[in-house]
Amino acid sequence: MPQTKSPAGDTGRLNYHAGLAAEDCVARAYEARGAAVAHKRWRGAGGEIDLVLREGETLVFVEVKKSRTFEAAARRISATQIARIFAAASGFIAGEPAGQLTPVRFDAALVDATGAVSILPGALHNA
């Protein structure tokens, strides 16, 4: 009997590629606003940051979430994730010329089922 791929494996691959597509949509939205993408999926000791951008002198760390609606995507951002993003960002900032004095912002970027993007500047500061 031939082996078939498990639905869970297929779902995992689909989610992975949907996540990459969402990150690309968000990166383009930031670029349209004048930001420059510094890194995608940057990994540090504290964890992974979906997007690191530069807006002038400010570093912008972005957590991207995709779901059917913006509200559902926003609910998927946990306090534990935010703590990991802050820890990873601290490692990234340490490599900057101004170090911990570098101006930073932590955004959430939500992508709905249609591919529409909602950028929430500073959202992770207030979470």
TrEMBL record:
SUPFAM superfamilies: Restriction endonuclease-like
Any one Gene Ontology molecular-function term assigned to this protein's record: nucleic acid binding
Xref: Gene3D superfamilies: 3.40.1350.10
One Pfam short name: UPF0102
HAMAP family: UPF0102
PANTHER family, alphabetized: UPF0102 PROTEIN YRAN
Similarity section: Belongs to the UPF0102 family.
Descriptive protein name: UPF0102 protein G3256_02080
